[in-house]
Design goal:
BFD-like_2Fe2S-bd_dom_sf, iron-sulfur, Dimethylsulfoxide Reductase, domain 2, oxidoreductase, binds molybdenum atom, metal-binding, binds ligand MGD, six-stranded mixed β-sheet, 31 helices, binds iron/sulfur cluster, alpha/beta, 34 strands, Phosphorylase Kinase, domain 1, iron
Length: about 900
Amino acid sequence: MQSHAPQNTHSTCPYCGVGCGVVSNKGSATIAGDLLHPANFGRLCVKGTALAETLNTQGRLLQPVVDGMPADWPLALTTAASRLQKIIVEHGPGSVAMYLSGQLLTEDYYVANKLLKGFIGSSHLDTNSRLCMASTVAGHKRAFGEDVVPGCYEDLELADLTVLVGSNLAWAHPVLFQRLLAAKAVSPDKKIVVIDPRRTATAESADLFLPIRPGTDVAMFSGLLAYLARQGQLDTDFTEQHCTGLTQTLEAAQCWLNIAQLADYCDVPVSDLTTFFQWFGATARTVTVFSQGINQAANGTDKVNAIINVHLATGRIGKPGACPLSVTGQPNAMGGREVGALANQLAGHLRFPSELTGIDETPDAEWQALRQFWRAPDLVQQGGYTAVDLFAAIGRGEIKAVWIMATNPVVSMPQADLVKQALQRCELVLVSDIYQDSDTVAQADIVFPALGFAEKDGTVTNSERRISRQRAFLPAPGEARADWQIVCDVAKALGFAHGFNYQNPAQIFREHAALTTLCNNGRRALDLTACRAMSDAAYDAWQPQQWPLPQVGYDSARLFANGQFYTADRKAKLVPLSGLEVLPRQGGDFVLNSGRIRDQWHTMTRTGRVPALMQHQSEPFVAMHPNDARRYQLKDGDLVELSNALGIFRGRAQLTDAQRCGELFVPMHWSGQFGFLSRCDVLYDDSRDPISRQPAFKQGQVQLKKLVVSAELVLFSRQPDLLPQLHGLCSYVVTVPHANMTEYRMALTVPANALAQLISLISHQLISAIQQSAAGAPPEQIQAQAPQHWRQAYVQDDQLQALLYAGPTLPALDRAWLDQCFANLLTATTRRQLLRGAPLEAGDCSALVCSCFQVRQQSIQQAITKGARCSASLGQQLKCGTGCGSCLPEIRQLLQHAPMLKI
Ligand SMILES: Nc1nc2c(c(=O)[nH]1)N[C@H]1C(S)=C(S)[C@@H](COP(=O)(O)OP(=O)(O)OC[C@H]3O[C@@H](n4cnc5c(=O)[nH]c(N)nc54)[C@H](O)[C@@H]3O)O[C@H]1N2
Ligand SMILES: Nc1nc2c(c(=O)[nH]1)N[C@H]1C(S)=C(S)[C@@H](COP(=O)(O)OP(=O)(O)OC[C@H]3O[C@@H](n4cnc5c(=O)[nH]c(N)nc54)[C@H](O)[C@@H]3O)O[C@H]1N2
Ligand code: SF4
Ligand SMILES: [Mo]
């Protein structure tokens, strides 16, 4: 670890799989984009821009916790080891599991996989990448023989046609999206096609948008293949020399020769579908980008192969500007795949004997080689439970100990309530996290405090196979340790010191690199030979590089240009598909789609703490078409409940014609830490892809109910942790952090006369909380009350402590001003205005559009009415869109709808 971090430290953003380079400047405590990093060349999105604001230690885990009590490391480690040992002795190694994360570094991942599969001898090790990349992994293996992304980011800039299917790139991989748009700005003839059931921010920038019926992507791409074949637009030289399966694949696709029928099936206009096919046929330089709209489906693997089929059949792979490009979600989802941290993988792309049976004379050669290399006699011989089955096995009591690292399955797994119950029942739950209060940490018997971004050292691999360094530039908070270190400490306590005596991450990385050379000889693309003897200094100085490393003699930017694949016969496989099999199952009133919003990262443990990132969307919502809303007499902002046999979710109706009728979209982000009944994953059942076992998060089924609200309440408080006390008091509670206050938004559905009682309960709790923090003195109360309306302020020594507004409707609240009231001592004027919720000269309280410069919708609309006609001139006037650029699609939308504005 670096003890004397230099003034500027180069590291990698810990959020998405774009893998942007960042530079931390110690002097100014800022984090900026790394101008030299080949992923982003200095750009950052809104989350990356706000990184510095996540680096305080508030809420961090600073020491281990054993059975709810703070503990020192020796106690935590010996307790963990002795309890694990007892379970292994009594129930066998197969009763122990690990559930890891694409947010671990490669070195963390490597040692965890080695410990469980090699030394403890259990194959039940899976990762949240099962929820994320498993279909792509399975699709790549089926087509290419190995899990390899053929292209690179530059291909997006070189392509003349970019097809974004099941990817909201503008919000989920914003820097890649900016690179794409910048290339298009230089060459406006480049075309972008977006295929998504929702008209997303990405779709707003498309030349053609196909609002596909969910789940029909296989049909659409099979139809495209049939069309291209009929037009004579296949690359038959390439397919004859380098592919197998074309004939059967074309046969299977024949059922979609009639474009009108296909358009009907996919529910898109036939003219638009024809345009897409014509553009595709006419454009050699085509990149198809895909993500969770493809992977997270009951036919996710087939969707991946339907896309790859078209690229293989047209020879558009491994060439500049032509490839299928899976964009990975997490910063190190790719690294996890490299070290084999999925239940059906071994390590270093080495395969289990079952995978080589039939294609190799000695199917156990790779397994034997690894066993020897690790000196691990107990190395498992076959795959284990994948995520959903793993938690089911915990629920059944078959798995008795689980170690969860860097992921929050109580929020992010399907059947989330069952996952929670399974952990409650599980004999031993170990959790390594960086925060004290995640929904999963709450279920742990032993909690290990881990180092987070800025404190830890190691490598990550991004979507284009580029390995970059995360480097430490802050000291460890409290007693937190690196994830790899914690794994090695437990391994040693279990008696496996000989396999886990690493001094630093460089040593682990070298071992990982050496492992990739086992039984390789060009049989696998993942080959890090060049790094096996790398010095510590070279590791520290590592510059971002793609694998296979150039020294091995490949073009490392693009693979397969030479037509050599990693199957037994070196040919790529086309997979016969028709796509007729799977459509969203009917059952509920609505199909439930879910995914990301612009400013939040997953379960919000980090981004939910940054006030600026909480403003774009402050509450869980249910996006729906206005026609659906009408049927339920809903207007924008009304409270709705989604439910099915598994659970309940509540959020605000968000009316938008970007949704298809009969389909809803909810954010995946809200957890029990931010709301009550806000976890959408309680609604997803265990349906998943039969090959990849990846859950179908885009196609749940739910009933919808309007919640008739009798009163809305907003409480602003200096106290950041009142949520547990408010849970259960109301029908709906969410919390929104601000810089100097925490906001609790609540709603009551019971008759309005219960409001008085609720107010007095809350008031009582507030007074006692304030009294406690102020050593006994009761706060001064300022209040105004009209029938059914309450407004109260709690003040102590001229310091505002809490503010409560309640009634059938609420006043327009100027939150920025209120936050300032909490920051400063109250003056006579502010005191008088507090209960209004806004100063007499109210500022702009409309929706926040630009998080970087805090520019709101009303200001943008006013500038448009005064004559601003493009995003550039709005940028000049207001600065909006000139920071990270993530809000440009929304600004363009405001410009588009300008004539209809009434201001
Ligand atoms: N802001 C932000 N960015 C992130 C993340 C985050 O939490 N926040 N997380 C990162 C991670 S881990 C991941 S995996 C990526 C995910 O990145 P994306 O996959 O781009 O994001 P999602 O919002 O999950 O889903 C993408 C789109 O798939 C569409 N879709 C749903 N069903 C179908 C279908 O049947 N067919 C098609 N064609 N499309 C469909 C959805 O409507 C949605 O717009 O984002 C990464 N980036
Ligand atoms: N409905 C629905 N559900 C989904 C999805 C969806 O689209 N829809 N998407 C799925 C996908 S693609 C993904 S990737 C998952 C993501 O889901 P999760 O992985 O559960 O989400 P995170 O919030 O990223 O969880 C990371 C945890 O690790 C902690 N952490 C952060 N840094 C470190 C570190 O360095 N070390 C350790 N030990 N801990 C750390 C954080 O505090 C947090 O608790 O969600 C899945 N769930
Ligand atoms: S696009 Fe944003 S979240 Fe993704 S790596 Fe870059 S800065 Fe981080
Ligand atoms: Mo993901």
